[in-house]
Backbone:
């Protein structure tokens, strides 16, 4: 079977610090949930490094409070569509219930990251992660010993850690999902590798660009205005088309 290659690449750019933090949280949580079977030192180190990064972010600012505000804001926006002709009222009601459930669960959850901060194994591994090559058994004897426990015991421990993150993960997924679907992609054209426009109080830029020119976007902006410059992966020999068609959504 021949390999199937994507024809476009999706990029996302936050237009404020709140969304920047949430996208990083999403990125880390996706890694944790998708790679939770730890049997070797290589994937175990990746998992614990990701846990450590997540802890660092959770210790900055009041993430729970910001998410609760956003869940309420999204509910209020959805309620404005109730009774509008052509709008699926049942779907609106279902989404509002999901946001309420996420908010209730998140509000009742213990302090985000508290279990991770108190776990001795996580703490022991975290202390050594800043040392280059610290995956050796003489650096992390506790982790090497833990990896030799029965798989059911290890899996149960990982599941316990992740369960404490479920309220955060569920709320974040709901918020980012509805945000990403709040605006459709529209066809745009850059001139000489440059494009700019008004953000209109947007939170998130989403760009789809073709793979073939081998370009990437360099974005600068905030909630009122943004600019995009397209650069070549090959900085010496690459060519940026004078006119580049791409897709853009300002959510």
Residues:
């Amino acid at each position: 079977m021949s390999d199937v290659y994507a024809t476009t690449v999706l990029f996302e750019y936050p237009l404020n610090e709140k969304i920047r933090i949430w996208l990083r949280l999403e990125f880390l949580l996706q890694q944790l949930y998708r790679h939770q079977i730890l049997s070797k030192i290589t994937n175990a180190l990746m998992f614990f490094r990701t846990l450590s990064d997540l802890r660092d972010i959770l210790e900055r600012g009041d993430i729970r409070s910001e998410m609760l505000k956003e869940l309420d804001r999204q509910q209020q926006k959805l309620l404005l569509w109730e009774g509008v002709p052509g709008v699926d009222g049942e779907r609106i009601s279902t989404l509002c219930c999901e946001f309420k459930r996420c908010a209730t669960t998140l509000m009742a959850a213990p302090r985000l990251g508290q279990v991770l901060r108190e776990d001795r194994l996580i703490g022991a591994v975290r202390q050594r992660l800043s040392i280059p090559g610290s995956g050796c058994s003489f650096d992390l004897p506790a982790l090497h010993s833990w990896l030799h426990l029965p798989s059911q015991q290890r899996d149960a421990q990982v599941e316990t850690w992740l369960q404490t993150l479920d309220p955060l993960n569920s709320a974040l997924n709901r918020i980012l999902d509805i945000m990403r679907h709040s605006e459709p992609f529209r066809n745009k054209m850059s001139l000489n590798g440059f494009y700019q426009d008004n953000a209109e109080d947007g939170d998130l830029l989403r760009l789809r660009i073709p793979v073939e020119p081998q370009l990437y976007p360099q974005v600068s902006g905030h909630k009122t205005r943004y600019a995009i410059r397209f650069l070549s992966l090959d900085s010496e020999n690459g060519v940026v088309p004078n006119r580049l068609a791409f897709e853009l959504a300002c959510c």
Notes: The beta strands are 8-14, 186-191, 194-198, 204-210, 215-221, 225-232, 243-250. The longest strand covers residues 225-232. The radius of gyration is 22 Å.
